[in-house]
Amino acid sequence: MLLILLGDGVVAGVVLLDPTPDKMMITTAWGLAVALSVYLCGRISGGHVNPAVTLSLAVRGDFPRSRVLPYWAAQLAGAFAGAMLVYVDYAEAFRAFEQAQHVVRGAMEGGKLDGPSAGGAGVFATYPLFDNVGRNFLSEFLGTAVLLLGVRALTDRRNAATGGYVEPLALGALVWAIGLSLGGLTGYAINPARDLGPRLASAVLGWGTSVFQSHSGYFWIPIVAPLLGGVAGTILYDLGIHRHLPPEGQPSPPGELSP
To answer: CA-to-CA distance for 16 and 13, rounded, in angstroms?
Structure first.
């Protein structure tokens, strides 16, 4: 909930109140939102806040598989609640935006939600810049693979893990870097709950089924691609890095791999 409240909150501020979108502002806020969310619940739940992380850890045996679906449900519910709070906070701004841009909530034009930022629905969920299914899938897959590569490196005690209070900030910086580098094409959902929860909220708030139909039914890509990309990133880390690391606490000479 905190992740979406702060993440979608900055998008709402930029889209609804500022005619010149600031990518640096948005990516910075999302990175900090991740860090704060991990600080909030890291000790209780591991601070996953992302179904792709939950699935990836379960696949490698670091998380009980019986808890995957309950975690997914909690992540989705939290994302939905966060999006609803953003709307309550920015309700007047939404109305002013729709009047100024002559937007009819949920209206479609040429197979897409009509108006800037998907007619305001882009405040909640992601919509691609180009209608290319394969490349959009690749963008979300690649971004999430990089995310899990970084997550594994930053949390692997056999590697140069940050640990302690620095770790959530490092994870936030990772998301910030992904947003700046790989986020321009699809809005870098890299988190199925982050996209689906707010998308459901926007459907309830008046955009209706158009949020699932817009951009050639794009909605499934930020759900499926991050799940597969996260598993791929985890496997790549384990094969390329983790299996070569020395036992925890044992230093490795520079340039020398462990057996």
So the answer is: 6
